[in-house]
Amino acid sequence: MAGCSFKMDMTVAQRAVGSAISRAQRTRRLAANIGEAMVSSTQERFEHGVGPDGTPWKPSQRAQREGGKTLVDTARLQGSIAYEASDSHVAWGTNNVSGRAHQLGAKTGRNHAVELSPRPYLGLSDEDLKEIQEMMRQHMVSSLTGRRS
What we know:
Layout: H1 11-25, H2 28-48, H3 61-66, H4 76-79, E1 82-85, E2 90-93, H5 99-104, E3 106-108, E4 114-116, H6 126-145
Antiparallel strand pairs: 1-2, 3-4
Helix pairs in contact: 1-6, 2-6
């Protein structure tokens, strides 16, 4: 190069980028934070009686008869919501046997004579997505800077 030049050794930058990539790939804490937030969000849906898209649940026959709330009388299903997280995934849901029937709807009771309306509680709302995006942004910033944002 004629005239004047500046030479920069990229070794330090390569090490910094490598360290940032290594930190960004450690996602277990991020997955756990997302899991905790989504368990909380799912449990709130029971309190408000709405699905992830904001659609109100059809009141149960018991709630109509007694003037109560649907799926919160015993809170067994609501209290069973949990998550599992690793570096590669996060999942939340329930091991309660009635969970599927409430999420998707089902025929239940003697001779399957009772039609259980679907009351979706698992899923992502727009607010959930925004919260997850912010968690991911904070994770990337802390990975790049080496400190928590």
